[in-house]
Amino acid sequence: MAVTIKDVARLANVAPSTVSRVIADSTRISEETKQRVRKAMEQLGYHPNLNARNLASQSTKALGLVMPSSKDVGFQNPFFPMVLQGISEGAQEKNYALHLTTGKSDREILDAVIQMVQGQRVDGVILLNSKVDDRVISYLKERNFPFVLIGKPYKNIEEITHVDNDNLRAMKEVTEYLISYGHQQIGFIGGSLEFMVTIDRLQGYKQALQNASIEIKSEYIVHEQFLREGGQDAVREIMALDQPPTALVVADDFMALGVLNTLDELGIKVPDDLSIVSFNNLLLAEMSKPPLTSVDINIFELGYQASKNLIVLVENKNEPTKRLIISHRLIERLSCSRPKQ
Amino acid sequence: MAVTIKDVARLANVAPSTVSRVIADSTRISEETKQRVRKAMEQLGYHPNLNARNLASQSTKALGLVMPSSKDVGFQNPFFPMVLQGISEGAQEKNYALHLTTGKSDREILDAVIQMVQGQRVDGVILLNSKVDDRVISYLKERNFPFVLIGKPYKNIEEITHVDNDNLRAMKEVTEYLISYGHQQIGFIGGSLEFMVTIDRLQGYKQALQNASIEIKSEYIVHEQFLREGGQDAVREIMALDQPPTALVVADDFMALGVLNTLDELGIKVPDDLSIVSFNNLLLAEMSKPPLTSVDINIFELGYQASKNLIVLVENKNEPTKRLIISHRLIERLSCSRPKQ
DNA sequence: TTGTAAGCGTTATCAG
DNA sequence: CTGATAACGCTTACAA
């Protein structure tokens, strides 16, 4: 039906193998026949059948992407499209295609990954959401199949190539920033502790307080969902304390938006009564009222480096595992000030 | 290297073709051998090589998804992850895989699509962003390759299967809703007129005004980018008029957020001084201040129906083209009230 | 009900 | 520099 390599060969008066070599731009083909073959390809509108090619060459030039479960709320966070953008760019540059995988349960996701990997649809896999004791990771490691993780692995850190921010340091800096403003009562509103990012940031928060000899109060530490009213409950809880904090670090701009609303309802002014720093620096951050001081964690770059390095991993069999740390940057806006007396 | 159909055949003491039939669950195989073969597959951890299978069967059980250009700002709108979620679900249900495609320019995108289609990596394609005179559409139509468009085609409406909202009616209803509140001066802040959705909504807006014998003022109609400060410029412009509107319809929640901010800066209170209705009903809508009355256009369903119907198209050669209209619903929150005297 | 064998469209190995 | 020819792993007539 479709035009094949044989049709091209016939028209150009060469063997199919020669056409194949022209496609691969082999050096061992005379410039003259190359021209002739290329013209024939053009003329016939030839495009190689990728399935045949993959089958013969035992490789696919495609990367698999494991998305967060579609039931996951986190899916609505703009984090996902941004990281995808980065991944996509890194792949495109090396002419790799992207293959998507989801599932409603962990089991479904694992099955989809297995199919994709064993079915040889992809040469490598990018993981977005590492959970504690992730079965997908165990599976890939076991088979020694190339993959990179965006975020920090729960175990075997040294054996898993991953790209992450230095979340500990980022949060430490943020906390120090607030301390330097004169804040002593600083609250922490983070996501679930089953995410490494939360663990790291919590630790950064604690370290900063300790270094400044500020007491760590457990009432100041709240873990909530990243999204939605999560922030609202958290902030009510924490502001109802006898001695409420004068500053807050929040895990995510989206959540910070909820925080801002609740504060408004409670009649608490930002930054006059309460300072806030959040993370991610989404468009949201500059559109909220007041605009949020937020840590830009370079989401695009996270994705870009992930695919870029996965390709390296795929193409060089003995590439060592790596840990890639993407830089972050505090973007100062209007949600912080000195505490009131 | 990997375990193949032959290994299974050998272990189960049957011919490879028999194994193939077992995989396809052919009725012409005895239950007994089915058991035996399945056991062998299990034992060896067999998974079919999808490239070989695709090559032999000339079909892929995969759908291609053309994403908005990664340079596109629209990419940051939560619309994308939501529609992807729907698409993914529809595909998963029928055991179809998803293949992604992007590019930085229209040319790159077209090339990627051609590669994907002619390379026979997918059986059908879902398009997200139809532009005027879309070359991807022309290409697919020309080749008679199955595809569905999310949104409304610019031309050949009857010949292109697409899933869309009734944007004209939705906007008409919204405008009538505001009129019923007593508003006579109603502004329109929409996206670029190169999007069909804008054209449809603008028309709905005009129809509602006409039906109510309200004059259509061109100064009340502003077209801006969907995102970012777009809203802010637009609202400044429109509120600076001698007789500013008492109500606004806005194309998108995200944009409405920008509008809210600017209004706040201008000292204009919502809904007391100005009523607002927006579209999409993102999480944002309930988190903004005040919470936005917004039209839920069922983004998930848009995606879900797209992949579901694309699969029908792919599997039934002579399926007629369809137009699928997804329902919408006005979600009333706190951004509307009667106009002041 | 099962086996044989001919593709599917490439790439890769050997000759020449 | 180029051409045969054998894989690659599976599906699918056609036989049996």
Task: Describe the overall structure.
The structure is a homodimer of 341-residue chains. By secondary structure, chain A is of the alpha/beta class. Chain A has three domains: 5-48, 434 Repressor (Amino-terminal Domain) (Orthogonal Bundle), CATH 1.10.260.40; 62-165 and 299-329, Response regulator (Rossmann fold); 167-296, Rossmann fold, CATH 3.40.50.2300. The first copy, chain A, contains 13 helices and twelve strands. Chain A has a six-stranded parallel sheet with strand order 2-1-3-4-5-11, with helices on both faces. In chain A, α12 links the parallel β9 and β10 (293-296). In chain A, α5 (79-93) runs parallel beside α13 (299-315) and α10 crosses α11 (253-265). The termini of chain A are far apart. The mean pLDDT of chain A is 91. Chains A and B meet through α4, α5, β2, α6 and α11 of A and α4, α5, β2, α6 and α11 of B. The first copy, chain A, binds a DNA duplex (16 and 16 nucleotides) through residues 2, 4-6, 14-18, 20-21, 23-24, 26, 28-30, 33, 48-58.
State the main characteristics.
homodimer; 3 domains; alpha/beta; 6-stranded parallel beta sheet; Rossmann fold; 341 residues; DNA-binding; 434 Repressor (Amino-terminal Domain); 6-stranded mixed beta sheet
Provide the helix percentage of chain A: 40-55%
The succession of helices and strands of chain A, N to C, reads HHHHEHEHEHEEHEHEHEHEHEHEE
Oligomer: homodimer
Domains counted in the coordinates of chain A: how many? 3
Distance between the termini of chain A: 81 Å
Report strand order across the widest sheet of chain A.
Answer: 2-1-3-4-5-11
Query: What is the number of helices of chain A?
Result: 13
- Write down the Rg of chain A: 26 Å
Strand segment tally of chain A: 12
- CATH superfamily of the largest domain in chain A, please? Response regulator
The name of the CATH architecture of the largest domain in chain A is 3-Layer(aba) Sandwich
How would you classify the helix and strand content of chain A by structural class?
A: alpha/beta
Low-confidence stretches of chain A: none
Q: What characterizes the major β-sheet of chain A?
A: 6 strands, parallel
CATH hierarchy class name of the largest domain in chain A: Alpha Beta
CATH fold-level assignment of the largest domain in chain A:
Rossmann fold
Mean pLDDT of chain A: 91
The interface involving the most residues is between:
A-B, 56 and 57 residues
What amount of the residues of chain A lies in strands? Answer: 5-15%
Which of globular, elongated, flat, extended, rod-shaped describes the shape of chain A? elongated
